[in-house]
Design brief:
Number of helices: 7
CATH topology of one domain: Serine Threonine Protein Phosphatase 5, Tetratricopeptide repeat
Structural class: alpha+beta
Order of helices and strands: HHHHHHHEEEE
CATH class of one domain: Mainly Alpha
Distance between the termini: 44 Å
Shape: globular
Number of strands: 4
Helix content: 40-55%
Largest sheet: 4 strands, antiparallel
Strand content: 5-15%
CATH architecture of one domain: Alpha Horseshoe
Low-confidence stretches: 1-6, 218-225
Length: 225
């Protein structure tokens, strides 16, 4: 099914996979396998774990190519609510390239991915719970991670008591973040020195929501939920 990493370019790999899956009726397990392998290949191409520098920028045509491959895979039976370590939504959050990661998360959510699905691979936590803790602890500075978290909330992600840790401003609903490309992020410190993230409309520059870190820089404060 999969070609060895490093031996073909990502573009060639995606073309080959697209030809394969377009001609097959896949089982859910096979579709999961393809999804995991595609995301692995994307991570290899764009992630720079252990190296200096920023992740490579994906050209527009590559983002569109990846999107098209997953459109076909979804049409061929990819289960976006698979409770496995191959869960598509869970896998895509580790793609270092923000444009690709956010595009895929948005696509999976639009195709019915449940942000509150309890994942065995995450110890029974939902992806929302896992991401919310991670942002409060050590992922606050990752723009792509933050935007995927906003998408989860827009599609109903929350704790069992309904809490999201996101404060909406000026009467807005979190559903506005389904249009995630309309919004930017701004980090500040409040009067007490706590880190705060503001989310604003790129067109109007109006703040629409804020998030304050769960933990201070020096003392870990466990959330009350």
């Amino acid at each position: 099914m999969s070609m060895e990493k490093k031996k073909v370019s990502l573009e060639e790999y995606l073309d080959n996979v697209l030809a394969e899956i377009s001609s097959k009726n896949l089982t859910a397990a096979e579709a999961d396998d393809y999804s995991e392998d595609i995301i692995d290949q994307i991570e290899y191409e764009y992630n720079l774990f252990g190296e200096e520098g920023e992740p490579k920028i994906a050209e527009k045509y590559m983002i569109e190519k990846i999107s098209n491959v997953f459109d076909v895979l979804l049409a061929r039976g990819l289960d976006v609510n698979s409770d496995s370590d191959k869960n598509a939504l869970s896998s895509c959050i580790w793609i270092e390239n923000e444009a690709i990661a956010v595009m895929l998360a948005k696509k999976f959510l639009e195709h019915g991915a449940n942000p509150n699905l309890k994942l065995t691979c995450e110890g029974g936590e939902s992806l929302y719970e896992y991401m919310n803790f991670s942002i409060g602890y050590d992922m606050f500075d990752d723009d792509g991670f933050m935007k995927i978290w906003l998408l989860l909330i827009a599609y109903g992600g929350c704790y069992e008591n309904g809490e999201t840790c996101l404060e909406m401003l000026n009467g807005y609903s979190a559903e506005i973040f389904k249009n995630i490309y309309d919004f930017g992020l701004r980090r500040e410190r409040d009067a007490n020195g706590s880190r705060v993230m503001y989310f604003y409309n790129i067109r109007t520059n109006e703040d629409v929501a804020l998030y304050q870190t769960l933990f201070s820089d020096e003392v870990m404060i466990l959330p009350s939920w």
